[in-house]
Amino acid sequence: MAPVKVFGSAVFANAARVMACLEEVGVEYEVVEVDYMAKEHKGLKHLARNPFGQIPTFQDGDIMLFESRAIAKYVLRKYAKSAQDDLLREGNPEEAAMVDVWTEVEAHQYLPAMAPIFYECVVYPARLGTTPNKKVVDESLEKLKKVLDVYEAHLSSTKSKYLAGDFFSFADLNHFPFTFHIMTTTHASLFGSYPHVKAWWERVMARPSLKKISAHMEIKA
Amino acid sequence: MAPMKVYGWVVSPWMARVLVCLEEAGAEYEVVPMSKSGGDHRRPEHLARNPFGEIPVLEDGDLTLYQSRAIARYILRKYKPELLGEGCLKESATVDVWVEVESHQLEPVLRTIVMHCIIHPHIGCDRDQAAVDESLEKLRTLLPVYEARLSVCKHLAGDDITAADLCHFGFMRYFMATEYAGIVDAYPHVKAWWDALLTRPSVQKVIAGMPADFGFGSGKRP
User: Where are the transmembrane segments (chain A) (predicted)?
Assistant: First the structure.
């Protein structure tokens, strides 16, 4: 059985999302580099895999997928072998619903607040040699604080170890790639004001799968 | 079994996403209308349901859910899992792909156009034509991909309707009421797909609560 392929290295946060899932379910995979700076993702070969010309794409036999969260769910559904690996909880409607809620919250509340900080403080300095735009970063920090207020209240009121309940799930995993990058900046200290969020993050990063992937995520010039 | 409750204003495209799924699923539900201009979504009783202060919110017994796509998945999983492609890895993945495409590629673009072209004039905000133009340019790169996809199958994830198509309904409804709707005419399969969606009883029922001007013109601002 040929290993599955991920097109785009872990340097791309959305590719790291997919690889984290592959590691969680213990599936062998091959990483195929896509040369972003050379615009390889807009070339015909890549467009045949993802007509929107984005990274990552994914191949498993004759199945070709794009959109990292869709790929991730496919991997988790197909390869989860035990209750330990069941990060989607689709057999339990209430649990699956909470996984979906916090997955959507990451995409539509958390990430939009965090993304400008990610670009200004991590990507642009590494790729373009720029210094962060203070106004953009400060505006995002204010938004992120409001979001973290909600996370802190949620984790402290439910007393749950993870976002969807006492089980590690796809919802927690989805927070990994971009939060990891923010934690490499001076803004990591923001999380110190949110003790339950900080404890949750430390729990999440203790996972061997995420430690392994994070070693390959540094964005360089 | 008490019917599910959906909190929000029915003109909202996010609310529409949930309502059209409820209708397709044939689920029993009741809308609890809220007032946006009255700030109902910021009141403590709503923040207790959704700490992000947004709509729609679904209540099903003890379960309270927010984020329209999470709600949609819960409803369809419970009442019509085939609309999620459940049970088939390839189908469910394809549904997920096109739900994500709408979420991350199309919706941001349609939302900007609808905000500036329909809503801003009613709330005394200027229309930022540069923002609209940027969104239109992006839209013109997305529509060919949709056209290619819908040339191969009748709906986004296959020949039958799925959550992927339903998730597109709300924002498409309002985009197609703007002066830019004609852009879609150059993409016959996209047009046919949209026209077919409009004939569905579920869509007709939900669209009845969604006047093209969000209700501002008739004085029924949300």
Answer: none
Candidate from B51, B66, B93 with C-beta closest to A70: B93
Contacting B with CB below 8 Å, chain A residues are 51-52, 63, 65-67, 69-71, 73-74, 77-78, 90, 93-94, 96-97, 100-101, 103-105, 107-109, 150, 153-154
- Residue in B with minimal Cα distance to A60: B90
Q: What's the CATH code, domain B4-83?
A: 3.40.30.10
Q: Give the pLDDT of residue B2.
A: 87
Per residue in A92-107, pLDDT (tens digit) is 999 999 999 999 999 9
Q: Which residues contact B152 (CB under 8 A, 6 or more apart)?
A: none
Residue in A35, A31, A81 with CA at minimum distance from that of residue A58: A31
- Residue B40 CA to residue B54 CA, distance in Å, equals 10
Q: What residues of B are in contact with residue A196 (Cβ under 8 Å)?
A: none
- Same domain, yes or no, for A130 and A200? yes
Residues of A in contact with B67 (CB under 8 A): 100-101, 104-105, 108
> Is the CB of residue B149 less than 8 Å from the CB of residue B156?
yes
Q: What is the pLDDT of residue A29?
A: 98
Q: How many domains does chain A have?
A: 2
pLDDT for position B218 = 79
Same domain for A98 and A194, yes or no, is: yes
Domain ranges of chain B: 4-83, 84-201
User: Per-residue pLDDT tens for A32-53?
Assistant: 999 988 999 999 999 999 999 9
CATH of domain B84-201: 1.20.1050.10
Q: How confident is the model at residue A221 (pLDDT cuts 50, 70, 90)?
A: confident
Domain that holds residue A37: 4-86
Nearest partner of B156 among B183, B203, B194, judged by Cα: B194
Contact B89 A97 (CB under 8 A): no
Domain containing A13 — which CATH number?
3.40.30.10
CB B169 within 8 A of CB B197: yes
Task: Kindly state whether residue A217 falls inside one of the protein's structural domains.
Answer: no
Shared-domain flag, residues A77 and A140 = no
Listed residues A86, A104, A127: the one ending a domain:
A86
- Position A219 in a domain: no
pLDDT in tens, B52-77: 999 999 999 999 999 999 999 999 99
Can you tell me the ipTM of this complex?
0.97
Integer Cα distance of A123 and A183 in angstroms: 13
